[in-house]
């Protein structure tokens, strides 16, 4: 490589600083979850695990986690079906308007969340006359989750080509048989990676959620947000935040198991 | 690989045969449901949003009156407060995009062209991991960093809650979206090209400009779509670290929920859409959209 030793050292130092910038705030949250001070005095006067036990007993947080899990699972299932269908259509066929369709699929994440949120809320309320609730929330989440499954699926299909499917057809298997026995098994790990990302995206989402969930439904992000500015809840909120940071290692680990580094890069976009 | 077979049956075989002979029908069945969802429900909602922005609410109950008028847009363009918020939001989005590009480039370059394959893998994971951590938690983490008496304040470098804190927090939130496309772009650039450039007598600056930049630019544009769009629509980060400052998202949210004025909220929401459409149209020729 042609970079001078000085350039390399500079690049290395800069990368180190950026990583410090990335991880320092997260480390602070985890550290503060053990801070004895209710107001997160700095430096911490002492350490305690009592906020963690308080958080485990918090009904609000527990109920919110259940709601978030339900929404994320349902949205992911819908996204899996629709995203796979769209990927098959776009990768295996050439048709007029193909570029427009692929633009349409990325639109829900390319447009700001407030726009998606208020557009869907407005449609539910004024066009369909549906009260905001679980249904509208899941539909909204699925809308922006489709793209994550689609991206993973289409990248895999592009790499695989259609040879095995053609062979299967030539050997007499029909469309469905070929899909079940050939296409789906080959796509499985890509679909899992997409589903994982879709799940994480939904579980974490707050902007679209505030518009489309209505009053009665409290997902975990909504619960955190509502308790964020309440001083007496601060330590418990901080523990939940710390737990989420620690837990985010799991999907990373799974996605690394599922696919090589290159695919996880593709999956993140 | 697990083999899964459909239940045997003449019906399925027959249908499958029909599908086999008619690729157009197959395409229609595959494309129909996603298009119904995205093309009809989602695009329809966006269209309905625009229509709603041309209506107004009555003075008492906040009920929508379906009378066509441009009052919402007139208010938006003539009232100083909204003009200030629009300009502020666009400036924040532009600053965040520039800061992220400046921070991301050296990191991406180091990852793609200097680090050993092993370190490269570790760095990709290190950059990806925060993406899985909750958005809200990350914004909240900066609230702790900026707090008076917090870590930054104790060494005297905290800007406190306000616009600077908002820009920094948003840059932090969207940084991986800039690093990853840049890294992917630079990864694809063969090292031999850089060496050839040096062998042919180009200095570091010339190599950067004529070999690295052409690859980097579409990648940066792809990343900027996210940094720009996500910032335009944000209203949570600014509430958490921005003090009393407002962005367009806050106006949309407040008009919708607190103000009970859906038509005005809809009119405000068309600003980020228009900004993004202009932006997408402008970057379309760079080929950045293909690498999304």
From TrEMBL, chain A:
<feature type="domain" description="ABC transmembrane type-1">
    <location>
        <begin position="65"/>
        <end position="255"/>
    </location>
</feature>
<dbReference type="InterPro" id="IPR051789">
    <property type="entry name" value="Bact_Polyamine_Transport"/>
</dbReference>
<comment type="similarity">
    <text>Belongs to the binding-protein-dependent transport system permease family. CysTW subfamily.</text>
</comment>
<keyword id="KW-1133">Transmembrane helix</keyword>
<feature type="transmembrane region" description="Helical">
    <location>
        <begin position="236"/>
        <end position="254"/>
    </location>
</feature>
<feature type="transmembrane region" description="Helical">
    <location>
        <begin position="130"/>
        <end position="150"/>
    </location>
</feature>
<keyword id="KW-0472">Membrane</keyword>
<dbReference type="InterPro" id="IPR000515">
    <property type="entry name" value="MetI-like"/>
</dbReference>
<dbReference type="Pfam" id="PF00528">
    <property type="entry name" value="BPD_transp_1"/>
</dbReference>
<keyword id="KW-0812">Transmembrane</keyword>
<feature type="transmembrane region" description="Helical">
    <location>
        <begin position="102"/>
        <end position="124"/>
    </location>
</feature>
<dbReference type="InterPro" id="IPR035906">
    <property type="entry name" value="MetI-like_sf"/>
</dbReference>
<protein>
    <submittedName>
        <fullName>ABC transporter permease</fullName>
    </submittedName>
</protein>
<keyword id="KW-0813">Transport</keyword>
<keyword id="KW-1003">Cell membrane</keyword>
<feature type="transmembrane region" description="Helical">
    <location>
        <begin position="9"/>
        <end position="34"/>
    </location>
</feature>
<feature type="transmembrane region" description="Helical">
    <location>
        <begin position="71"/>
        <end position="90"/>
    </location>
</feature>
């Amino acid at each position: 490589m042609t970079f001078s030793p000085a350039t390399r050292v500079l690049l290395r130092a800069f990368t180190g600083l950026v990583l410090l910038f990335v991880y320092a705030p997260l480390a602070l949250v985890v550290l503060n979850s053990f801070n004895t001070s209710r107001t997160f005095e700095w430096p911490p006067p002492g350490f305690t695990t009592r906020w963690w036990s308080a958080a485990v007993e918090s009904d609000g947080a527990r109920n919110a986690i259940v709601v978030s899990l339900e929404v994320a699972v349902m949205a992911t299932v819908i996204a899996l079906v629709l995203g796979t269908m769209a990927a098959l259509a776009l990768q295996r066929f050439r048709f007029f308007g193909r570029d427009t369709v692929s633009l349409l699929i990325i639109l829900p994440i390319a447009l700001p969340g407030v726009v998606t949120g208020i557009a869907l809320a407005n449609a539910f309320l004024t066009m369909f006359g549906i009260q905001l609730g679980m249904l509208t929330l899941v539909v909204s989440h699925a809308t922006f989750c489709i793209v994550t499954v689609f991206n993973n699926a289409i990248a895999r299909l592009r790499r695989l080509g259609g040879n095995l499917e053609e062979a299967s057809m030539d050997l007499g298997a029909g469309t469905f048989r070929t899909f079940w026995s050939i296409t789906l098994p080959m796509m499985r790990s890509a679909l899992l990676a997409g589903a994982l990302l879709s799940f994480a995206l939904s579980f974490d989402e707050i902007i679209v959620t505030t518009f489309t969930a209505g009053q009665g439904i409290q997902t975990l992000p909504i619960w955190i947000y509502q308790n964020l500015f309440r001083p007496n809840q601060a330590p418990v909120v901080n523990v939940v935040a710390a737990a989420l940071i620690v837990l985010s290692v799991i999907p990373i680990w799974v996605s690394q198991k599922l696919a090589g580094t290159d695919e996880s890069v593709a999956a993140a976009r | 690989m697990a083999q899964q077979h459909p239940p045997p049956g003449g019906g399925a075989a027959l249908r499958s045969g029909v599908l086999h002979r008619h690729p157009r029908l197959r395409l229609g069945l595959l494309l129909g449901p996603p298009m119904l969802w995205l093309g009809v429900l989602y695009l329809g909602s966006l269209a309905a949003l625009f229509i709603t922005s041309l209506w107004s609410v009555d003075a008492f109950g906040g009920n929508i009156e379906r009378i066509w008028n441009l009052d919402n847009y007139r208010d938006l363009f003539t009232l100083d407060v909204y003009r200030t918020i629009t300009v502020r939001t666009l400036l924040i989005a532009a600053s965040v995009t520039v800061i992220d590009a400046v921070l991301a480039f050296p990191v991406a370059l180091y990852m793609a062209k200097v680090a050993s394959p092993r370190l490269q893998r570790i760095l990709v994971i290190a950059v990806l991991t925060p993406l899985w951590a909750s958005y809200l938690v990350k914004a909240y983490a900066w609230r702790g960093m900026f707090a008076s008496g917090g870590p930054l304040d104790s060494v005297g470098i905290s800007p406190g809650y306000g616009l600077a804190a908002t820009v920094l927090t948003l840059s932090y939130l969207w940084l991986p979206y800039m690093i990853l496309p840049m890294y992917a772009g630079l990864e694809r650039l063969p090292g031999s090209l850089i060496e050839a450039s040096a062998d042919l007598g180009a200095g570091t600056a010339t190599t950067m400009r004529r070999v690295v930049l052409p690859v980097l630019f579409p990648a940066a544009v792809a990343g900027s779509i996210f940094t720009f769009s996500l910032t335009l629509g944000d209203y949570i980060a600014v509430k958490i670290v921005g003090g009393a400052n407002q962005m367009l998202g806050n106006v949309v949210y407040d008009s919708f929920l607190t103000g009970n004025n859906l038509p005005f909220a809809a009119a405000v929401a068309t600003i980020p859409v228009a900004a993004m459409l202009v932006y997408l149209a402008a970057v379309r020729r760079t080929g950045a959209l293909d690498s999304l």
